[in-house]
């Protein structure tokens, strides 16, 4: 599915400790319009559960979590 996803915004939070990646995401999402596709890059394993939980609470859509060799890419759409 990632081949079809072209993020409008990429947030590089690699090497940030928890809850840094989530805080980076929340701060950025507040500035974005609905329909914006965001890619969050993180090396923090907890982000793979924390981010989807926050997205559900905040009403945004999780598109995909892609595991790479040394990090995860979390794709979402702002609603």
UniProtKB/TrEMBL annotation:
Residues 10-77 form the UPF0033 domain. Keywords: Plasmid. It holds the Pfam family TusA. InterPro entries: TusA-like (IPR001455), TusA-like_sf (IPR036868). Belongs to the sulfur carrier protein TusA family. This is SirA-like domain-containing protein. It comes from Halopiger xanaduensis (strain DSM 18323 / JCM 14033 / SH-6).
């Amino acid at each position: 599915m990632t081949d079809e996803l072209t993020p409008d915004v990429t947030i590089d939070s690699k090497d940030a400790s928890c809850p840094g990646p989530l805080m980076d995401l929340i701060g950025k999402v507040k500035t974005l319009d609905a329909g914006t596709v965001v890619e969050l890059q993180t090396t923090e394993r907890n982000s793979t559960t924390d981010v989807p939980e926050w997205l559900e609470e905040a009403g945004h859509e999780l598109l995909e979590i892609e595991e790479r060799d040394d990090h995860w890419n979390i794709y979402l759409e702002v609603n």
